[in-house]
Amino acid sequence: xxxxxxxxxxxxxxxxxxxxxxxxxxxxxxxxxxxxxxxxxxxxxxxxxxxxxxxxxxxxxxxxxxxxxxxxxxxxxxxxxxxxxxxxxxxxxxxxxxxxxxxxxxxxxxxxxxxxxxxxxxxxxxxxxxxxxxxxxxxxxxxxxxxxxxxxxxxxxxxxxxxxxxxxxxxxxxxxxxxxxxxxxxxxxxxxxxxxxxxxxxxxxxxxxxxxxxxxxxxxxxxxxxxxxxxxxxxxxxxxxxxxxxxxxxxxxxxxxxxxxxxxxxxxxxxxxxxxxxxxxxxxxxxxxxxxxxxxxxxxxxxxxxxxxxxxxxxxxxxxxxxxxxxxxxxxxxxxxxxxxxxxxxxxxxxxxxxxxxxxxxxxxxxxxxxxxxxxxxxxxxxxxxxxxxxxxxxxxxxxxxxxxxxxxxxxx
Length: 413
Ligand SMILES: NC(=O)c1ccc[n+]([C@@H]2O[C@H](COP(=O)([O-])OP(=O)(O)OC[C@H]3O[C@@H](n4cnc5c(N)ncnc54)[C@H](OP(=O)(O)O)[C@@H]3O)[C@@H](O)[C@H]2O)c1
What we know:
- By secondary structure, the chain is α/β, with parallel strands linked by helices.
- The chain contains 13 helices and 15 strands.
- It has helices at 76-83, 149-153, 156-169, 186-195, 212-215, 229-236, 251-259, 282-291, 297-303, 312-317, 322-337, 354-362, 380-386, and strands spanning 35-41, 50-56, 64-74, 99-107, 119-123, 132-136, 140-142, 177-180, 202-207, 221-224, 241-246, 260-268, 306-309, 345-349, 369-373.
- The strands form three sheets. Strands 3, 4, 5, 6, 7, 14 and 15 form a seven-stranded mixed β-sheet that branches. Strands 10-9-8-11-12-13 form a six-stranded parallel β-sheet, sandwiched between helices. A two-stranded antiparallel sheet has the order 1-2.
- Strand 8, helix 4 and strand 9 (202-207) form a beta-alpha-beta unit.
- Helix 3 packs across helix 4 (186-195) and helix 3 (156-169) crosses helix 11.
- The protein starts with 34 loop residues before the first strand and ends in a 27-residue tail after the last helix.
- The structure holds NADP nicotinamide-adenine-dinucleotide phosphate.
- NADP nicotinamide-adenine-dinucleotide phosphate (NAP) is lined by residues 75-77, 157-158, 161, 182, 184-188, 207-208, 211, 225, 247-248, 269-270, 272-273, 275, 310-312, 361-362, 364, 366, 403.
């Protein structure tokens, strides 16, 4: 398992001034401040649509808590949001981010279960990448005493999604086999750890080759994403596998269905294949849609196969599933306290470094979770590049980039 937090962040000559970028923040009296810093997405598109701006300080409404944010999770979904690669995108400008953690700073009327000073993690329907957030208590969970803020920011979304897919949609049991794509990513590593809590589960992980050494102990078998994984899995399990977790979509849907054993479950929970260049590609979108196997229920009946879909954010924010999620979170926090699971953290980034962080996930460079650490200072280069004092104004369009350009990173975490 990767080491947590700051220890993992490799310092380079570019990271020289730990106080750079802090001057812009009103830190004299945080509780009386009228403004806060937040990452703002000015419009859908490339990295140039992201900036750090000052926003009005939010105040909690009935049933809400106000949280002084310490750290936020950066997910692949945030990259898709930036590109506008999602259904029914909200209007821009918006503050991205779906999860954060921090300390309760105030509690509105009719709000029960939380007190000022509680260490909490929370889901938000956008707006998480800010110094302060307000959110209904239905989406807030107390952190265990020994959980760090870095771990908390890396916990909620990936572990809840992995848990609900494995145990509530697919009913993972002893002796089963699971195939997971993007096995080195945040959800992939959560899936691998949760599978290890059940005896004798075989995990087939698929990931970019350079991650194999780091993650091979977390799965039973690991394959390069460019190999014919169907053939490789069938050499080991000729009958196929019990569960396929597919976050890629497109051609993988048909391949995955062909890998299922009778009574096996296929779960679609993402569409990473739609992301190719820096901005939304209608070609990739259409290709992915076109390649999806058209499902015939009669074939499912004949072959004894189960097809499912899972979207945690829709469950939480559109389908009233917060009690289901709370119950999954309680079980996960118990597993954490028993030291059976622990989030894998890839790297920590200042808010002003959000472009570089997002590029790292786009470049397939991450192993585990990327964290936006609200108290981390940006490098001077990043601060000059991304920090703005006003929300207005757009920059020039950047050309569509290619996906394999790790050299563009000004530094590697
Ligand atoms: N439905 C839900 O509730 C839910 C919740 C959380 C996440 N998700 C989905 O789960 C997937 C993983 O999310 P995550 O946040 O944990 O991300 P992640 O796996 O930590 O990071 C992204 C990884 O995805 C792989 N990848 C696959 N296609 C890619 C592409 N076109 N461009 C760049 N990388 C690509 C890369 O790993 P390799 O190169 O090693 O393959 C990359 O390192 C995403 O599809 C996300 O939308 C769904």
